[in-house]
Design a protein that fits this description.
531 residues; alpha+beta; Cytochrome p450; 3-stranded antiparallel β-sheet; 9 strands; binds protoporphyrin IX containing FE; binds 2-acetamido-2-deoxy-beta-D-glucopyranose; Cyt_P450_sf; iron
C-alpha cells in the first residue's frame, strides 16, 4: 500500500533521514570505540582534511595523542597510532600497504613521475614493490656503501674540489665567511647522491653552479604548498579540473615538475653516454643507474611488458635524488644550527675530528679518511642521531591501509578491532618525543647517545631501534639510509675539521608542519671562522 505524502512532509523527512543515515553509519563503525581526536572525527573526514589543509596536522596530533593516548580516531575511516606494540610494529613491520586494496587510493601516487610512472617510493602494493626493491637493496646496503670505491672517489672529489674550496671562497666576498648553509648543504647532498647514481661526470655540480641551486630549490620548494588537493583528494581534484575547468594547482607547478624531469632525463642520457664510451675512472661509474638498467631490462625482457624502460628508469632515479638530497640537506642544516647554538658541543666535536687520519687538509693528492673510521666516531654519530631524532626531515604521518581482513591495533591493555581499508599512520616527530624513552625529549642532547652500554639492553633497543623512526621501519623503510648517514658524516667532518660556525640569522628556522619538513624560511645564515 502506498501512503501519499504531502510535499511539506517530504521536506521535513529529508533532514531526519540524513541524520538517521549518519547515525547508522556511526553505530556500525567499529572505529567509534576509539577516542576521537575531535568531536566530529567519528562522523566525517572534513576535520582531518581541514587540519592538513591548514598545515597544523603535527601540532594537532601531538596535542590529541597527549590527551587521548596512543591510538586516536581522525575520521570515520582513519586512525593515528603513537606506540610500538600495537602500533608501528604491527603496521609497518607488519607490511600494511601504501595503497588501499579497497578503492585503489594511494597517498604516495603523487610521487610517481613522468606522467604517473611508478617507482619504489610511490608503488602502492607490496608485490611489485618487492620486485623493484630486490633490484636496489644491494647497492644501498651498508656493506656496499661503506666499501664502494666509486662512492669514496666521488665523495673525495666533491669534498676537496668543490665543498672545501667553496667554503674558503666565501671569505673573499663582501660578507666574509657568511653563507646560506641550507642552500650549500642541499647542493652538496644533491651532488653526492646524483654522483652515486650517475657517476661524477654525469651527475650534478650544484656547489659550483650557484644559479642552478637557487633555480632547483625554488622549483622544488615552491610546489610544496600545492600538494594538498592532488594528494589528499585526487578524485575531487580531477573532477573539478575536468568538469569545472578549474585548476586546483597552478599551471606553473606542473611546469616546475617538467623542468625537474627534464634535468633528470639529461643526467640519465649523460650516464648512458659515459657507459657507452666505457668507464675508465671509478669516480665516473654510474652505480645506481647501471644497476637499474641491467636489472630492469632483464625484467622487461622476461615480462615483455611494462612502461618504456627509459621512463621507468628516470622515474626511479628522480625519486632517489629528490628523496636523497632534500632529507639529508634538511638534517644537516639542523646539525649546523644546533652545533652553532651549542659551542661546547662544537668544540668537543672538533677535538674528536682531530683524531681522524688523514685529516681534512688540502694537499696535492687529497685522500679522505676511511669510511669506517668516520663512521666509528662516537660524538659525530651522536650529533647526527640526535638531530635525526629531534628534527626528523620526514616528521609527518606515513599513511598505510589496514589489510582487507582487518586487524587489531592499540596498546596491549587496550586494543581495538579495525576493519580493512582504514587509513592508519604514525609520525616520527611524535614517536621521538616519548619522554619515557628519550628523557627531556624536546631538548637537543647528543650525550644521550654516548656510553649507551651502561643503559642496559632494553633501554638501548628502545632508543636505537624500537622508537627511533627517522627512516621509518619495515619493508618500506628508507632504502637510502646508509648512503644518507655516509654523506652526512663526511660533510660534517669536513666542515668542522676546518671551521667553526656561528648563527648570523636563523629567523624561520622552525620546521614546517608537513610530511617533509624543511626550515620555514628555506635558509640559515651562518658565519664561518677558520679554526
Ligand atoms: C637523512 C636522510 C633521509 C631520511 C630522514 C629519509 C627518510 C625516509 C623515510 C621516513 C622513508 C619512509 C617514508 C614513508 O614510507 O612514508 C624513506 C623512504 C625512502 N627513501 Fe629515504 N630518507 C633519507 C635519505 C634518503 C636517501 C639518501 C635516499 C637515496 C636513495 C633515499 C631514498 C628513499 C627511497 C627510495 C624510499 C622509498 C623506499 C620504499 O618505499 O621501499 N632516502 N626515507
Ligand atoms: C610537532 O608539534 C610539537 C607540538 O607542537 C612540536 O613540539 C614539534 O616541534 C613539532 N614537530 C615538527 C617537526 O614541527
Ligand atoms: C683545514 O684546516 C687546516 C688546519 O687544521 C688548514 O691547514 C687547511 O688549510 C684547512 N683546509 C681548508 C680546505 O680550508
Amino acid at each position: 500500500m502506498l501512503v501519499a505524502l504531502s510535499p511539506p512532509t517530504i521536506a521535513a523527512l529529508v533532514p531526519v533521514l540524513l541524520v538517521a543515515q549518519i547515525l547508522v553509519t556511526y553505530l556500525r563503525n567499529p572505529l567509534r570505540k576509539i577516542p576521537a581526536a575531535h568531536p566530529l572525527a567519528h562522523f566525517t573526514s572534513l576535520w582531518a582534511h581541514s587540519i592538513r589543509w591548514r598545515s597544523i596536522e603535527n601540532a594537532t596530533l601531538k596535542e590529541a595523542h597527549d590527551r587521548l593516548g596512543p591510538i586516536i580516531c581522525l575520521g570515520p575511516n582513519e586512525v593515528s597510532v603513537n606506540c610500538v606494540k600495537g602500533g608501528i610494529r604491527d603496521v609497518y613491520a607488519g607490511g600494511f600497504e601504501k595503497g588501499n586494496a579497497k578503492d585503489g587510493y594511494n597517498w604516495y601516487a603523487f610521487f610517481a613521475n613522468y606522467g604517473g610512472v611508478y617507482n619504489l617510493f610511490s608503488t602502492g602494493s607490496n608485490k611489485p614493490h618487492s620486485l623493484r626493491k630486490r633490484m636496489l637493496s644491494k647497492i644501498y646496503s651498508k656493506s656496499h656503501v661503506t666499501a664502494s670505491e666509486p662512492l669514496l672517489a666521488q665523495t673525495s672529489a666533491i669534498m676537496y674540489k668543490r665543498f672545501l674550496p667553496y667554503l674558503s671562497s666565501t671569505f673573499s666576498s663582501s660578507d666574509p665567511g657568511i653563507l646560506n648553509m641550507y642552500a650549500l648543504l642541499s647542493a652538496t647532498t644533491m651532488d653526492i647522491v646524483t654522483c652515486y647514481i650517475f657517476g661524477l661526470r654525469a651527475g650534478s655540480n650544484l656547489i659550483e653552479n650557484r644559479e642552478q641551486v637557487t633555480w632547483f630549490l625554488d622549483l622544488y620548494n615552491s610546489r610544496r604548498s600545492f600538494n594538498f588537493w592532488p594528494q589528499e583528494l585526487p578524485k575531487f581534484t580531477a573532477f573539478v579540473e575536468k568538469w569545472l575547468r578549474y585548476r586546483m594547482t597552478p599551471k606553473w607547478v606542473e611546469e616546475a615538475n617538467g623542468e625537474i624531469e627534464k634535468w633528470t632525463a639529461k643526467m640519465c642520457d649523460d650516464a648512458g653516454a659515459v657507459m657507452t664510451e666505457g668507464i675508465s675512472e671509478s669516480e665516473n661509474a654510474p652505480v645506481v643507474y647501471q644497476q637499474l638498467q641491467n636489472t630492469m631490462s632483464k625484467q622487461a625482457e622476461k615480462e615483455g611488458v611494462g612502461a618504456p624502460l627509459t621512463a621507468s628508469l628516470a622515474s626511479e632515479v628522480l625519486d632517489h635524488l629528490a628523496a636523497g638530497f632534500d632529507t639529508s640537506g634538511i638534517t644537516l642544516t639542523y646539525v649546523v644550527h644546533e652545533l652553532s647554538r651549542h659551542p661546547d658541543m662544537q668544540a668537543r666535536l672538533q677535538r674528536e675530528l682531530l683524531t681522524l687520519s688523514p685529516r681534512f687538509v688540502p694537499s696535492s693528492s687529497p685522500i679522505l679518511p676511511e669510511p669506517k673510521a668516520v663512521d666509528a666516531l662516537p660524538l659525530l654519530h651522536a650529533v647526527i642521531w640526535e638531530t635525526l631524532r629531534l628534527h626528523s626531515a620526514i616528521p609527518g604521518p606515513q599513511p598505510r591501509f589496514t589489510p582487507p581482513q582487518g586487524c587489531c591495533l592499540g596498546p596491549e591493555e587496550n586494543t581495538y578491532y579495525i576493519p580493512g581499508g582504514v587509513r592508519v599512520s604514525a609520525s616520527a616527530g611524535l614517536l621521538h618525543l616519548n619522554e619515557e624513552v628519550y628523557e627531556r625529549a624536546s631538548e637537543w642532547r647528543p650525550e644521550r647517545w654516548l656510553d649507551m652500554e651502561k643503559l642496559g639492553d632494553e633501554k638501548r633497543k628502545d632508543m636505537e631501534s624500537r622508537w627511533f623512526w627517522a627512516f621509518g621501519s619495515g619493508g618500506r623503510m628508507c632504502v637510502g639510509s646508509h648512503l644518507a648517514v655516509y654523506q652526512m658524516k663526511y660533510i660534517i667532518a669536513a666542515l668542522y675539521s676546518n671551521y667553526s660556525t656561528t648563527i648570523v640569522d636563523d629567523t624561520g628556522i622552525e620546521q614546517t608542519d608537513s610530511y617533509t619538513a624543511p626550515p620555514r624560511s628555506d635558509k640559515l645564515m651562518i658565519k664561518l671562522e677558520k679554526v
